[in-house]
Amino acid sequence: MMLLSLLANPAVRPDLFTARRAKPAAKQSRWLRMAEGISLWLAVLLMLFVHPLYAEARQMDMEQPGQLYLMNDQNARQQPAVILDSEFQVRVSGLLAQTRLTRTFRNASDQWQEGIFVFPLPDKATVYGLRMTIGEREIVGHIEPKAKARQTYERARQAGQHAATLEQHRPNLFTSRVANIPPGESVQVEIRYQQPVAYKHGEFELRLPTTLTPRYMPGEPLAETQGPWQSGWALATTEVADAHEISPFTVRPTDVDGGSHRARIGIEIESGLALADVSSPSHRLHTELDGARATVRPEQEKVLMDRDVIVRWRPVAGSEPKAAVFHQTWQGEDYLMAMVLPPETVGPVLRRELVFVIDTSGSMAGDAIAQARSALLKGLESLRPGDSFNVIQFNSQAHPLFAQPVPAEGHYLARARRYVQDLRANGGTEMAGALSLALGMDSGPGGERVRQVVFITDGAVGNESALFNQIRSGLTDRRLFTVGIGSAPNMHFLREAARWGRGEFTAIHSGAEVDRALNRLFAAMEAPVLTNLDVRWPDQGQPLEPVPARPGDLFRGTPLIQVIRGLPAAGQLQVSGQLPGGRHWSTSLDLAQAAPASGLNRQWARGRIDELTDAARLQGQAPDEQQITELSVRHGVISPFTSFVVVEQRRARPETESAGSQSIPTLLPAGSQPGMLRYPQTATFAPLFTALGLLGLMFSLAIAMLNRRPSL
Predict the structure, then answer these.
(1) What is the pLDDT of residues 33-66, one digit of tens each?
(2) Mean of pLDDT values over 323-347
(3) Highest mean pLDDT pick, 549-558, 624-633, 693-702
(4) Are strands 659-664 and 642-651 parallel, antiparallel or unpaired?
(5) Which is nearest to 193 in space by CA: 214, 211, 166?
(6) Exposed, middle or buried, 391 (CB in 10 Å: 0-12/13-18/19+)?
(7) CB burial class (10 A; 0-12, 13-18, 19+) of residue 312?
(8) What is the residue-wise DSSP string for 171-206?
(9) So what CATH class is 351-526?
């Protein structure tokens, strides 16, 4: 207040400010004095306004720590967010894992709520069931075309009915909406899905994603696309049209209720092979082994949903499968799944040109960039005399270390190691520029070499489809290999980028995994062990539709897996190919020895949908929506054009009651830096900072007017 008195006192004003000469102007002087008075009174009022704002901000900062609050359109505090509980019940049989994922949405507020949750599933998941449970009542969902499913859900939500929907945005990214959760009560939503179990190098692996790394959304924002289904921190862009639907808020575990975002996990394994051990690089496990069966759960009763859950098991040495076949009859049709491993063979050592691409964007900050540096240094160690190499780092822009690949010699390698050790993570994830640079780079001197690209990233991008097209069109004679980094990488991007790049992929969960994962990858990169594959099923006089229709080259330790419809379990399956050095290899499999299985029809349908999508991409056309929808509805599996919806017919919410809507955040992936946090609008000091800014503006205006006033 002393400063205000000094400003208002003409007697001291000459001592505070430099007087300036001006022509007398009584009218102008009166207006200046009036503006000064208004400005000073506004400043006083703002100071009186700031104190309660500061007190409220401090109170909101201190009360109920660990409780997330949202703000409504009037900047008023809402009730605590819906509390989320999850349970994974997994049953593994042979090469398929069936999972029952139960989400419990508990409304801790005194208002009816809608819960919206964007979450990951395994990148090869086939979703085939949705159920909703309210109290003792269970309602089974069904599949509808996506637009119709949204309309069905919206009508039920507005009519006060219990309802839920599940829709796919990417093969590994989904949204669940639950309408009209009563105050203080819970609604359970059960999702059923299956996934193939990965098998490489004599080891099976199952991955259960629980959170995701926030994705970079390239392109210019399209603000006009906001609507009732806007549920994330991002706006739709010219390159990611659904960015507003795939960008859930990301918070710390301490930002949510202490009982929220935890999961119970139970896994039953029936491998058909005597098991040597079960392990996990992500969690400590409690395991009960009984021959070919195992019961597995984390040592903690509930695990925090901040990383992928990874479980691996190995058969007893000498009993590793070389081939396997499974059979199912569904609605009168036969389905077969066959797995054949190529022989362990080593071809001639080839000279290679390796271009290492490392992601140094902001999403890689923390443990991920340390793992990426270790992976790249390991790659440099794999180089042999006669090889050439280069290093490209990318974030908002891509930068090569050398203008072109250089020989893998001492001084070049030493310079590259120093360069890699100094890399830090910040900026955006402009992956397209890095791919253009890597795939378009001219070869260095020194003759013909096998050209390979090693792409090290967490895959946290929203424009996957455009990047796959870029890889396909720009690959030429190269092979692209991907290395996934972090506790929650985008496995869909990593797997598909390697497939379109005719290479292999691996994922590194922690620093301890680097040597193990990369030794296998670089061994596979030396050369495919089986090319020119020819798979011949018994001739039944009718066209067959195997998926994949044309399997690619096989790398060391990686099996051929194919599913076919309409063929009984009889006759011989013939598989042949070319080994390194041009030698011929072939094997046969007796289909009559097929083991019984379930879910093969769904696996075939999911593969067929993928084939139709790939074919459209290769032709530069839109996928056949009608055919994909028919496949989806007939086999009961979700697709890009269909969604699950479930509605309880009776009204639950009274007409006199209104309902809110809350987007449930995901947890920051373990090892990530705070820069990846994406908060909803919460109770913060923002109003205080706004008031302080206005106060400063009023003082500046008053001082400027006093300076402009004519001197006496």
Answers:
(1) 665 566 555 555 555 454 444 433 333 333 333 4
(2) 91
(3) 624-633
(4) unpaired
(5) 166
(6) buried
(7) middle
(8) TTEEEEEEEEEPTT-EEEEEEEEEEEPEEETTEEEE
(9) alpha beta
Contact 508, 530 (CB under 8 A): no
What CA–CA distance (Å, rounded) separates 257 from 665?
12
Cα dihedral 437, 438, 439, 443 sign: positive
Least confident of 78-82, 87-91, 434-438: 78-82
Q: What is the mean pLDDT of residues 689-711?
A: 55
The sign one gets for the Cα dihedral 220, 488, 89, 115 is: negative
In terms of Cα–Cα distance, which of 527, 472, 476 is closest to 504? 527
> Is there a contact between 548 and 607 (Cβ–Cβ < 8 Å)?
yes
Q: Which amino acid is at 217?
A: M
Question: Biggest alpha carbon distance in the chain?
Answer: 111
**For 216-240, how does the pLDDT look when each residue is reduced to its tens digit (9 = 90+)?**
999 999 866 556 667 789 999 999 9
Burial 649-668 (b: 16+ CB within 10 A, else e): eeebbeeeeebbbbbbbbbb
DSSP 3-state assignment of 309? strand
Q: Report residue 605 as tokens.
A: 């349908």
CA 62 vs. chain centroid, Å, equals: 33
One-letter identity of residue 617? R
Tokens representing 521?
């990858």
Which distant-in-sequence residues (6+ apart) come within 8 Å of 170 by Cβ? 246, 464, 492
Parallel, antiparallel, or unpaired for β 584-590 and 560-565?
Answer: unpaired
Q: Superfamily for 69-317+637-676?
A: tricorn interacting facor f3 domain (2.60.40.1730)
**DSSP E strands: which ranges in 420-549?**
450-457, 479-485, 505-508, 531-536
pLDDT at 7 > cutoff 50 = no
- 315-319, 445-449, 586-590: least confident range: 445-449
Q: Where are the domains of the chain?
A: 69-317+637-676, 323-344+530-629, 351-526
* DSSP H stretches of helix in 105-169: 146-158
pLDDT at 419 > cutoff 60: yes
Beta bridge partners of 530: 554
H or E stretch covering 347:
none
Question: CA angle, 264 as apex, 260 and 266 as ends, to 5°?
Answer: 165
3-state secondary structure 554-589: ECCCCCEEEEEECCCCCCEEEEEEECHHHCEEEEEE
Query: Closest Cα partner for 556 from 341, 382, 313, 351?
Result: 341
- The answer to whether 149 touches 212, Cβ cutoff 8 Å, is no
